[in-house]
Amino acid sequence: VDLIFMDEGQLLIVFSDHIESYHVESGDRVWEFQVESSSEIFAGKIIYANHSVYFDNGEGTVARLSGRDGSILDTYKVLEGGIFTYVRNLAVSPDGKLLGFVDDMTNYGTSTIYLYNTETGKEYSADIESTIVTKLVFAGNDHLFFMTDSGTLSSSTTYNNEITFIEVATMHFYCFDPTMKLLWTKDLQYNDMAVCMGVLDLPSRDS
User: Fold this and answer.
1) Other C-beta atoms within 10 Å of 158: how many?
2) Strand order in 61-66's β-sheet?
3) What are the tens digits of pLDDT across the range 163-186?
4) Strands of 87-92's sheet in order across
5) pLDDT tens digits, one per residue of 115-141
6) pLDDT score recorded for residue 94
7) How would you class 85 by CB atoms within 10 Å of its CB: exposed for 0-12, middle for 13-18, buried for 19 or more?
8) Which of 54, 135, 161, 187 is the most exposed place for a label (fewest CB within 10 A)?
């Protein structure tokens, strides 16, 4: 179950196969939307932007519902494929004009990042050498950020008589424009992976 607060004074409750909207002050249910039997909603894939609710509707489509009454406003065919084609890591620009997502069917070692323009129907893409998608998010209406992590817990050491796995890991940041042109990229290296993940309170490598 996932919870999203909307501008309409409504609370959106997301289940695996349907969405319910409730009025915050009265607690009355405002609307309900049942997804098709061939689809399944995953928590974290529901996006609220520009008074609309966006989610993966299965079969390579993204649905847009009215935040006010739950009616279907649009359905975007963003991926060609069958029943098991899902849109991963969905992101929506604040104005609702651009959809960012990752194709579920990726090649080994590569992730394909897509950007779909809801006004023109044009789709752009870029391949990134990574299969670990940490975050896909819009910064304003014209910049799509993609973050991925190259770190793995591979080496071990002993600290306070306990064995833990540590490694110097790198977080990769990519910034794209509305046509998926890469504007810049930056690598952020941080010390012990275990510290970053909150596994143990380890000292930094430099101390």
Assistant:
1) 8
2) 47-49, 52-58, 61-66, 72-77
3) 555 555 677 889 999 999 999 998
4) 87-92, 98-103, 111-117, 123-128
5) 999 999 999 999 887 656 678 899 999
6) 94
7) middle
8) 161
